[in-house]
Specification:
It contains 13 helices and 13 strands. With 340 residues, the protein is α/β, with parallel strands linked by helices. It has 3 domains: 135 residues, HAD superfamily/HAD-like (Rossmann fold); 118 residues, Calcium-transporting ATPase, cytoplasmic domain N; 61 residues, no CATH class. The chain has a 7-stranded mixed sheet, sandwiched between helices. A 6-stranded antiparallel sheet has the order 3-8-7-6-5-4. Helix 5 packs parallel to helix 7.
Length: 340
């Protein structure tokens, strides 16, 4: 189907039947609300650490990660003409962080709990410094060097210019919007407040996304899930309708029933309007067909003959059946004029 501003690709049969009834939209913060192109904004080493050396070590480590936030740190270092070094013994922990050896120093980048699990204990001053950044909607990563808390890095992902309009449209359609993210609660809450979202579920691990979608459905909600990453794929399959961004991963698109080719959330509102118009049109066509048959079949069987002496001519019967088909087709063609 082609929307007015977005190409909408249906990858499974008849998702519009389920999409008509949805009342809750679950979205991830990255890629569905934001540009998905985070940038390194703040480099804040702790006392005793040189800023350039601090960024050199963190960015060198992040070369081994495929996470968008890691790419932002690497690019931030390159923008400052910092020559990165190779990494040994690289290890990544899902929803936690990364650790490896750069030169002769062991470097860790990730969430505070991840660093604590790696025996880094002096994180409280850094966490206090991170609060204001998180309240501004920035994602903060903590860095340790040789087991000592070394500073923080703040990354921001700009909100798409179309997101506010999309949220307004979705609210007008009666949907409740839930942001689901692995990010810090303060960061997620700041983004949700800025955009006027209804609910925030933060610090969610990948498996938790599926559990949350199941929980909403168990509460009787009709859930549509929008996502673009590998970790979103199970939740996309669990929702009544999964919507993938065309700018995201192949796995997400294969797990979803609908793909927004341009990755624009306004396409979700368009798809819902189209689904509601389509189902309404189908019901109207059923009524037309039923009325024609309810009236035509008894007359063709001679119900009027004993009283009025009227029999239905085969020519008239054929014309009536043709008119029935024309009525249904003409009504269906009205969908072309639906304002999305």
């Amino acid at each position: 189907m082609i929307g007015k501003k977005n190409y909408i690709n249906l990858t499974r049969s008849q998702p519009y039947q389920r999409l008509e009834k949805v009342d809750t939209l679950v979205v991830d913060k990255t890629g569905t609300l934001t540009e998905g192109k985070p940038k390194l904004i703040d480099v804040l080493p702790a006392a005793g650490f040189d800023s350039k050396d601090f960024l050199l070590l963190a960015a060198s480590l992040e070369q081994g990660s495929e996470h968008p936030l890691a790419a932002a740190i690497v690019q931030g270092a390159k923008d400052k003409d910092i020559a990165l070094q190779p990494v040994k013994d690289f290890r990544s922990v899902t929803a936690g962080g990364v650790v490896g050896t750069v030169g002769e120093r062991v470097v860790m980048v990730g969430k505070p709990d991840f660093l604590r699990d790696e025996k880094v204990t002096d994180l409280e001053p850094l966490e206090a410094s991170a609060v204001k950044l998180q309240e501004d909607g920035k994602t903060v990563m903590f860095v340790a060097i040789n087991g000592q808390a070394a500073g923080i890095l703040a990354v921001a992902d700009p909100i798409k210019v179309t997101t506010a309009e999309a949220i307004k449209d979705l609210h007008a359609l009666g949907l409740k919007l839930v942001i689901l993210t692995g990010d810090n609660r303060r960061t997620a809450a700041a983004v949700a407040k800025q955009l006027g979202l209804d609910s925030v579920e933060a610090e969610i691990e990948p498996a938790g996304k599926v559990a949350h979608v199941k929980k909403l459905r168990a509460e009787g909600k009709h859930v549509v899930m929008a996502g673009d990453g590998i970790n979103d794929a199970p939740a996309l399959s669990e929702a009544e309708v999964g919507i993938a961004m065309g700018t995201g991963t192949d796995v997400a698109m294969q797990s979803a029933g609908i793909t927004l080719v341009k990755g624009d959330l306004r396409g979700i509102a368009q798809a819902i309007r189209l689904s509601r118009a389509t189902m309404s049109n189908i019901r109207q066509n059923l009524v037309f067909a039923f009325l024609y048959n309810a009236l035509g079949i008894p007359i063709a069987a001679g119900v009027l003959y004993p009283v009025f002496g009227v029999l239905l001519s085969p020519i008239i019967a054929g014309a009536a059946m043709s008119l029935s088909s024309v009525s249904v087709i003409s009504n269906a063609l009205r969908l072309h004029r639906v304002k999305l």
